[in-house]
TrEMBL record:
Signal peptide: none annotated. This is N-acetyltransferase domain-containing protein. PANTHER family: PROTEIN YGHO. InterPro entries: Acyl_CoA_acyltransferase, BcerS-like. It comes from the Bacteria. It comes from Rhodopirellula europaea 6C.
Length: 384
């Protein structure tokens, strides 16, 4: 490769288009790739307003070899994260690159330099653009397409990121199982579900379509409270919660949700998202003008469900109420026609959730990885 490598900030609409188009070109011949919802992607990378950036700074970069765009990345300073964790950590996301090690190293170095100029002493990623959204680099499980809102990438990306000095920080696991696992559920888990229901006199209900917005807020509020001690967690802002509520309104089916209440107080929430990816692929990620209609009309034929969340308020955790919420959803999923379920994602360090899912009969299907790299002079000297 004789042409020089040059990495520069994205500037202007032509660069923005090149940033988005690179993804299409790199995966053009990959049958497992699913395009993102482009109207959402332009907001998450910062090209249009997204409430995440009300308390964060972001800068996108392109790396070229000669006149050809060969890579891209987003560098992020997440002020909410750094306040919450009392650290000075930057992030990177939306990394895409040709199999060009020199270009990838230059791209990630430039992003790191931008973060250092803003006082960051370390960088973590990939996150798109935070752990409350899509997260992780796929390192195992390339044989099948991703489910809805789960990242996908080429296998060689792991080598490129490691070449740039990054080391593993945490793995995220996806598990899958036939949706009829109720018929073979471990009796010990059934006992936990029954005992937890009896102990707390817990009652589960679905989202009320007449109070949809309020109930979605209940879900997101429980999410915010339940994960306070979870690795990497940062609370979503009120504006982010509102934005997520609007997005979920068109995607959630009330019957595939569950709110656990004790004496009328919501204490746990679980929900499944239909795997819209087969339909998103058909509409090429374009919701307008008729993509939304095709998603809504076609979802009755979907056979896969992503079980995204079973969150419980801290004071009720470790009592099995998360299982109670999921137990309510599974029969409804079977009635809908769902055949396979995916639990994603689950932190490698979350031994309790992993053990419960594995005892329930699910098997690990994909692994995504989050990497760290120090930005201090000593560590950079050691990695060169």
């Amino acid at each position: 490769m004789s042409e020089n490598v040059l990495c520069q900030p994205v500037s202007g609409r032509q660069d923005q288009k090149a940033f988005l188009d690179l993804e299409k070109r790199l995966y053009r011949d990959d049958p497992n790739w699913v395009p993102p919802l482009w109207s959402e992607r332009v907001k998450l990378v910062g090209f249009k307003h997204h409430p995440f950036y009300d308390d964060a700074e972001g800068q996108t970069f392109l790396v070229r070899r000669g006149d050809r765009v060969v890579g891209r990345v987003l560098a992020v300073v997440n002020h909410a994260h750094n306040r919450y964790h009392e650290e000075t950590r930057g992030f990177f996301g939306f990394f895409e690159c040709e199999d060009d090690e020199e270009a990838a190293i230059e791209l990630l170095k430039t992003a790191g330099d931008w973060l250092k100029e803003r006082g960051m002493t370390g960088v973590r990623g990939p996150v798109h653009p935070s752990l409350n959204y899509e997260v992780g680099l796929l390192v195992d499980g390339f044989d099948t397409p991703p489910t809805f809102l789960i990242p996908y990438n080429h296998p060689y990306y792991e080598r490129l990121i490691q070449a740039a000095g990054f080391e593993k920080s945490q793995d995220l696991y996806s598990y899958e199982a036939s949706i009829d696992i109720l018929e073979t559920l471990d009796p010990k888990l059934l006992f936990v579900i029954e005992e937890s229901t009896r102990r707390f006199n817990a009652v589960c209900r679905s989202i009320d379509p007449k109070n949809f917005n309020a109930d979605v807020r209940v879900f997101l509020d429980i999410y915010n409270q339940s994960l306070q001690r979870t690795w990497g967690y940062v609370p979503m802002s009120e504006a982010e919660v509102d934005d997520q509520s609007k997005g979920l309104k068109n995607l959630l089916l009330p019957k595939l949700t569950s709110i656990a209440e004790i004496d009328g107080k919501p204490v746990g929430a679980g929900f499944g998202l239909l795997d819209y990816n087969p339909l998103i692929k058909k509409i090429n990620g374009k919701l307008f003008p008729f993509g939304w209609l095709k998603l809504l009309m076609g979802r009755k034929k979907l056979k896969r469900l992503r079980l995204v969340s079973a969150n419980v308020l801290p004071e009720y955790q470790k009592w099995g109420l998360g299982l109670v919420t999921l137990y309510k959803i599974l029969p409804e999923a079977i009635k809908f026609g769902i055949e396979m379920g995916e639990f994603s994602w689950v932190l490698e360090s979350n031994q309790l959730s992993r053990g419960t899912i594995e005892r329930g009969g699910a098997t690990r299907s994909k692994t995504h990885r989050i990497y760290d790299r120090s930005l201090t002079p000593d560590s950079e000297q050691a990695s060169t």
